[in-house]
Design goal:
heterodimer; A: mainly alpha; f41 fragment of flagellin, N-terminal domain; two-stranded antiparallel sheet; 4 strands; 66% helix; B: alpha+beta; four-stranded antiparallel β-sheet; 12 strands; rod-shaped; bacterial flagellum (chain A)
């Protein structure tokens, strides 16, 4: 084949260009650490990345939700614990009275006062808030559960339980409606912890305290006080049961959080595998591409320069 | 005696002319489209000497011709058109790819992620307006992104139209230049010789044209040159039929027509590429051009808004309002106009989180809204089905595959052209070495002829001045 000077030049320019293109691509990859910059670089890879990134975003949000749910439950548990303490104290006092260790009217008055205090405290706890939301009020977190006089402040359906997403179609029930703890029903009947509550009803727990206080005030019918001991014990058991439920949910959440962490790790790994370049490998490739580029420059300089023109005088 | 002089002078002139040709070649070594020229030399008619034979009378340059392989031209022009087509497609598709912004932090996916993240976050505290605010802001960012992509797609489409107009102008201008060159070449070549440099110019124009539109070229035996697009003459000797861009009234469709209103049948070329991009909506086997992506985006915006609104309508806001739309859009152009409804913009409380009126912490409807993202029947009609993410993914994948294909086609076409170009250079290009060698060759021949004149001069000197003294 006949070779002309412009052929050589064109070829050299073309090859230099190709080498530069390779070099540019590799350098971009190294600089960004990513294998592709537009979908057409790797259609399948990009659509995978799309999914992985979304997965990570979702998982991170699930984790946040789980954390939020946990802190809500921690507060619920603290409140339940306090109710337990109150019940324990009331129980002790009532036992003292029943045993006859406190017989003097002024002692009884003191006991009554403390019982009244405990009752007030119960109401406070019933209206506990978690970042300004009343935790026992079901969906009506903007309203307190109990009025100052101890009656229910709101209508509360027992299914007013809100859920947080902690996974794709995986939710966790977060709140505990106050009825589960405070109950409803007359002081002399069996408490009802599972039916809906209407406003102005008196909670069973408060009713027990009220009855006790009244009894201490009016005189001392030991039988009534004996009965109250049993009632207080029952209430305490209910609180413990609810507490156990919350604890179990917290355990589950903890496991869920750990699992989400592991999943985030996995997806990140997949994502990285999918779109991250191996820095060591890319560095070697760049070094190679640079060598090729430099040698093509050198060859070009040699090839282009001499023609017969230089040797004719 | 003069016989020898004549022969020597002929040799002198032939060498001189060959040197001029060499000179011309060297001068034009970097001229685009230049074809190296070669003088054709032959011995002049011999002189018959009876009883002796034929005595040579010297030499002459009887023709100067281009060294060119017309098959390679034919190949080049044929392959140039697809290259133009795929180059246009490649450039525009990569622009659309950047519009969709995948993979990056300004992609659809990211905006959708953020929106749903805000929703999910709100579901943990629907009563708090500081959790509602991000929902509105992220939803707004999401719709703004759709708007922007829609607007930019529209602009891109307008730009392709402008490019087409430019290309049409170029076709007509080149056609007119070719016609006037035809006239010149034809009148020069009446003498029977080829107008080499003018032909180079004409070939270069055809080459330029062949990138814009698929052309075929025919030269009749009597030297009339015809350039046609899919069988219809663009230039017929000195006549030009111009092409024009026609906008169909009351629509955004366009046609590329001949002067008489019939459609130009484009097979390839930059113009075809641009036309495909401008009007290809991917239906009925047409190319997936800009309208395709516009339609898909509209489909997405409309479908997403409707589905989301439907579920949102079922819920109750903090004030107990229900039947509220979350998004609104103009049905004519959903993607360009989608935004949040006035109710949502005016009052954050109108985000319908609850399933029943009045309960602050009720997030059941919100959870269902969030669940929509996993709904495999979210998009159940139309071209791609599945979740919103599936929909976006299918747009991006289509784009990626098309863009990759256009790049591959462009590269292979480019490679092919490069090969043909190399072959053409090999045949027609000027080689310094060759020209230098020729120069030396012709210079020597010239010197030898001059020396011959010198010799004849001496002979004549002897004959005239030194032979005897008769006549002095």
């Amino acid at each position: 084949m006949r070779i002309t000077n412009n052929m050589l030049i064109n070829n050299m320019v073309y090859n230099l260009n190709q080498n530069l293109k390779t070099l540019e691509k590799l350098q971009y990859q190294k600089a960004t650490g990513k294998k592709f910059r537009v979908p057409s670089d790797d259609p399948i890879g990009v659509s995978k990345s799309l999914k992985f990134n979304t997965d990570i975003a979702k998982l991170e949000q699930y984790k946040r939700n789980a954390e939020d749910a946990t802190s809500w439950m921690v507060d619920t548990e603290l409140a339940l614990g306090e109710i337990g303490e109150i019940l324990k104290r009331a129980y002790e006092l009532t036992i003292d009275v029943a045993n006859g260790t406190k017989k003097a009217p002024e002692d009884l008055q003191k006991v009554k006062e403390e019982i009244d205090q405990l009752r007030e405290h119960l109401i406070q706890i019933g209206n506990t808030t978690y970042s300004d939301r009343h935790i026992f009020s079901g969906f009506k977190t903007d309203k307190p559960l109990l009025k100052e006089d101890g009656t229910y402040n709101i209508d509360l359906n027992m299914d007013e339980i809100f859920e947080y997403n902690v996974g794709i179609s995986e939710t966790v029930k977060v709140n505990t409606p106050g009825g589960k703890v405070f109950g409803r029903g007359d002081v002399n009947s069996t408490p009802d912890y599972n039916s809906n509550i209407s406003e102005n009803e008196k909670p069973y727990l408060i009713a027990v305290f009220d009855a006790l206080s009244e009894e201490l005030d009016s005189g001392q019918n030991l039988d009534v006080i004996q009965e109250t001991i049993g009632k207080l014990q029952n209430c305490h058991e209910q609180v413990l049961a609810v507490r156990a439920e919350v604890g179990a949910k917290m355990n589950r959440l903890e496991i869920t959080e750990k699992r989400i962490d592991a999943q985030i790790g996995n997806v990140n790994e997949l994502l990285s595998f999918n779109e991250d370049v191996d820095i060591a490998e890319i560095s070697i490739q760049i070094a190679m591409a640079e060598n090729v580029y430099i040698s093509s420059l050198m060859v070009g300089a040699k090839i282009i320069q001499p023609t017969l023109v230089q040797f004719l005088t | 005696m003069h016989f020898g002089f004549n022969t020597a002078v002929k040799g002198l002139l032939a060498s001189q002319r060959s040197l001029y040709i060499t000179n011309h070649n060297i001068s034009n070594v970097n001229t685009r489209g230049y074809t190296r020229q070669e003088g054709a030399q032959r011995a002049t008619t011999p002189y018959a000497l009876p009883g002796i034979g034929f005595l040579g009378t010297g030499t002459e340059i009887y023709d100067v011709s281009r060294i060119r392989d017309s098959y390679l031209d034919f190949k080049y022009w044929n392959e140039n058109a697809p290259m133009g087509e795929w180059e246009a497609k490649m450039n525009h598709l990569s622009e659309i790819e950047k519009l969709f912004g995948e993979p990056s932090d300004t992609s659809f996916r990211k905006y959708l992620d953020d929106f749903f993240k805000a929703l999910t976050n709100m579901s943990t505290n629907p009563s708090d307006s500081s959790y509602r605010e991000p929902v509105r802001e992220n939803a707004l960012a999401f719709t703004k992104h759709i708007n922007e992509v829609a607007v930019r797609l529209n602009e891109l489409r307008r730009e392709t139209k402008v490019s087409m107009e430019n290309n049409i102008e170029r076709i007509n201008s080149i056609a007119n230049q070719i016609a006037s060159l035809n006239r010149q070449i034809y009148s020069y070549e009446i003498s029977g010789y080829k107008a080499n440099d003018l032909r180079d110019r004409r070939d270069l124009l055809v080459e330029e044209l062949s990138k814009v539109v698929n052309v075929s070229v025919h030269e009749s035996d009597d030297g009339k040159f015809r350039v046609s697009i899919s069988g219809v003459s663009l230039v017929d000797h000195i006549n030009v039929s111009e092409v024009k861009l026609k906008t169909i009234p009351n629509s955004d469709e366009i046609r590329i027509e001949w002067g008489n209103g019939s459609l130009v049948n484009l097979k390839s070329g930059e113009l075809k590429g641009l036309l495909d991009l401008y009007s290809g909506d991917g239906e009925n086997n047409t190319y997936r051009g800009i309208p395709y992506y516009q339609n898909r985006l509209n489909e997405f915006a409309e479908g997403f808004a409707n589905k989301f609104n439907k579920k949102h309508n079922e819920g109750y806001g903090l004030n107990g309002n229900t039947n509220i739309d979350f998004f609104k859009f103009d049905a004519e152009k959903p993607a360009a106009t989608i935004t949040l409804s006035d109710e949502i913009l005016e009052d954050l409380k109108n985000i319908a989180a609850g399933k029943a009126p009045g309960d602050a912490e009720d997030n059941r409807n919100l959870l269902e809204l969030i669940g929509l993202r996993e709904d495999r029947k979210f998009f159940s009609e139309g071209t791609s089905q599945g979740t919103p993410d599936d929909f976006i993914k299918s747009i991006v994948s289509n784009l990626a595959v098309d863009s990759m294909q256009s790049e591959r086609m462009y590269n292979s076409q480019n490679m092919m052209l490069k090969n043909i170009q190399t072959k053409r250079d090999s045949v027609s290009g000027v080689s310094y070495d060759e020209e230098m060698a020729n120069m030396v060759k012709f210079q020597h021949a010239y010197m030898a002829s001059a020396r011959m004149i010198n010799t004849l001069d001496i002979i004549m000197d002897v004959t005239i001045n030194r032979l005897g003294l008769v006549g002095r």
